[in-house]
Amino acid sequence: xxxxxxxxxxxxxxxxxxxxxxxxxxxxxxxxxxxxxxxxxxxxxxxxxxxxxxxxxxxxxxxxxxxxxxxxxxxxxxxxxxxxxxxxxxxxxxxxxxxxxxxxxxxxxxxxxxxxxxxxxxxxxxxxxxxxxxxxxxxxxxxxxxxxxxxxxxxxxxxxxxxxxxxxxxxxxxxxxxxxxxxxxxxxxxxxxxxxxxxxxxxxxxxxxxxxxxxxxxxxxxxxxxxxxxxxxxxxxxxxxxxxxxxxxxxxxxxxxxxxxxxxxxxxxxxxxxxxxxxxxxxxxxxxxxxxxxxxxxxxxxxxxxxxxxxxxxxxxx
Length: 318
Prior knowledge:
The protein is of the alpha/beta class. The protein folds into 2 domains: 4-96 and 289-308, NAD(P)-binding Rossmann-like Domain (Rossmann fold, 3-Layer(aba) Sandwich); 98-281, NAD(P)-binding Rossmann-like Domain (Rossmann fold, 3-Layer(aba) Sandwich), CATH 3.40.50. The protein is 37% helix and 16% strand. The longest helix has 20 residues, at 95-114. The mean pLDDT is 97.
């Protein structure tokens, strides 16, 4: 019996036909009700290319032939990894292709927020928000000399540290496991406790995964411990931040601003957040370049083909 791969999203027939694989490859016929479509046919497939949709117990129980789930993205909180592991199903992600574009995007958000690039653009378009050019209300802050705190010093956190060093920033980080002295030196960074990260950081950038210990981590108590006037950047996972607590921290001026690429109840963004001048929002665009998405596709699809062929993969979660 030929091994079969299901891509959990519709793609052009030309691209589907051009995929280099020794296996039979199918894709969904439409983007509507993707979970239901996958659930209906998953029992016929050995590999699943997962794109944001849930891969839960119900789906995994029906996937009697399934041997691997390759997630399109570095985060995999949409997949019940523990249950997949119990069933002997491999799970992979795409850390290599997502690192540089996400780090670049985080730096772009940081500069746009702290230097008020996006705010001034909005005010100029509105036509009546700037009293005169050069008015102090248009001033941002310099980032050189600022302390950047990084929560989550994995591939992306390290790439952000590299870029921040080029901007003459002081870099501190907190991670579940401290890096080696050599790695800290290479990334010009110093380890601090989570409490110190909050109190020392002028700008705090989140690059941690979403799991039980980070879900809702940034609540009212955590925000109250952040340095007054600090900025928050989140290109990690929206569920790490409690939106109501963030709104309070912003509207009381405890935080100077926030730039968010991910949201607690994505894709819903509260109007109260959108109304704030000191907030930048993006539609989960950390890897949104054609080159990055092509590389992610190749990495995820390559993981499935490699696994089903008995070869080494780029990455494996379980």
